[in-house]
Amino acid sequence: MFILASASPRRRDLLAQIGASFRVEVSEAEEVREAKTAEELVRVNALAKARAVAAHAALPVLGADTVVALAGRIFGKPADEREAHEMLAALSGRAHDVLTGVAWCRGGQEFSTVEKTRVFFAALSKEMIARYVATGEPLGKAGAYAVQGRAAVFVERIEGSFSNVVGLPLHAAAHLAEKAGVDLYDASRA
Questions:
Q1: Is 190 within the bounds of a domain?
Q2: Residue 175 sits in a domain of what CATH number?
Q3: CA pair distance 14, 12, nearest whole angstrom
Q4: Domain count, the chain
Q5: Nearest-angstrom CA–CA distance, 39 and 120
Q6: Do the domain assignments include residue 118?
Q7: Which of 5, 38, 65, 111 has the smallest CB count inside 10 Å?
Q8: Does 46 fall in a domain?
Q9: pLDDT given at position 190
Q10: Cα distance between the two ends of the chain
């Protein structure tokens, strides 16, 4: 049993998909908005989220943070529909990186990694972007899209972890959990 320090329903769904034994406690950590690199940004935020919950929890804690990066620009969650339009127009017809920082805090020890996945977007017309933004799906999503939702039709191909693009690289999180001595599964539920 462990704690997921995240409000993301996508992260909860991914962990439930693999049968992990966890409970959710939303971290109150304040996210850093700028860093030298996208890698540094997501690692710092993932660790901050995990630390904030671990400070008062006996169980191991998993924190994560995801951003989209394109040509040195970092896209988090759009503030509004206008910003969602801008992000999607910038991603249109281009390849970008999705980066997720993953952090485990257990018994005073910290373990972290960053997963990077390359996503290739098709060219999107202004009408396609407007229709997609009107669905409301882009809000609350890094880079203003949900690969597991309607935006799946925008993706020509992915190089790397699909679950990373959704919001939690499952293989990386499980591998890091093993290093941290965290059992993702409750043996009594097997």
A1: no
A2: 3.90.950.10
A3: 6
A4: 1
A5: 19
A6: yes
A7: 111
A8: yes
A9: 43
A10: 13
Is the pTM higher than 0.90? The answer reads yes
Task: Give the active site residue among 13, 65, 97, 186.
Answer: 65
Contacts 24+ apart (CB under 8 A), 186-189: 186/1, 186/21, 189/19, 189/21
- How far is 108 from 140, CA to CA, in rounded Å? 31
Task: Give the whole-number percent of the chain exceeding pLDDT 90.
Answer: 92
Q: How confident is the model at residue 111 (pLDDT cuts 50, 70, 90)?
A: very high
> Is a pLDDT exceeding 70 seen at residue 188?
no
Looking at the domain assignment, is residue 185 inside a domain? Answer: no
Domain that holds residue 164: 2-180
Annotation says 183 is catalytic: no
What's the average model confidence in pLDDT over 41-53?
A: 97
Average pLDDT over residues 40-58: 97
